[in-house]
Amino acid sequence: MAMRLRTPMPEFKGVTEWVNGEVSKEDLQGKPVLVHFWSISCGMCKTSLPQVNEIREKYKDKGLQVIGVHMPRSEKDTEIGPVKETIEKYELKHPQAIDNQHNVVDAFENEFVPAFYLFDKEGVLRHRSAGEKALNLLQNPLNRILGEE
Fold it and tell me: Is the distance from CB of 126 to CB of 137 less than 8 angstroms?
């Protein structure tokens, strides 16, 4: 069951390790937030990482906060070293939660990578999309949320 629209943002609890700074739900209050689930073993995820960086840079002046959540899909994906290397290689400068126990994944009721959850500045889920066309589906809701600022 996917997280329903208009649901409040869950907490980021039980993260195995944070890279590029730890964030909490309280840190994000009053800001639009894009939560991006990805996995090191997902080719489609790696293809989309530069686009996620573009979104981060394009909308940072409008207050958009981007949070990455690495969601392992296999035992091999839980090796933190290669995940950190990928974060560095793809210049993912925004906070990254390495979620080896799927605590954040479960809180968001997420099943897929790549997946995107867009929250408005009140912390309410306004859009979610996953899979190959997820980034394309994100543009209009992103413009709507940021237009509300």
Answer: no
Q: Extract the tokens encoding 71.
A: 């969601």
- Which three-class secondary structure state does DSSP give residue 123? coil
The whole-angstrom distance between residue 72's C-alpha and the CA centroid of its chain comes to 14
Q: What is the CATH number of the domain that holds 91?
A: 3.40.30.10
Query: How far, in Å, CA of 18 to CA of 133, rounded?
Result: 28
Residue 105 to residue 100: CA distance in whole angstroms: 9
Residue 114: is the preceding peptide bond cis (ω within 30°)? yes
Condensed to tens digits (0 to 9), the pLDDT of residues 30-82 reads 999 999 999 999 999 999 999 999 999 999 999 999 999 999 999 999 999 99
User: Model's pTM, two decimal places?
Assistant: 0.95
Domain for residue 142, yes or no? no
93: containing domain:
10-64+74-111
Judge whether 2 lies within some domain: no
Look at the chain and report how many structural domains it folds into: 1
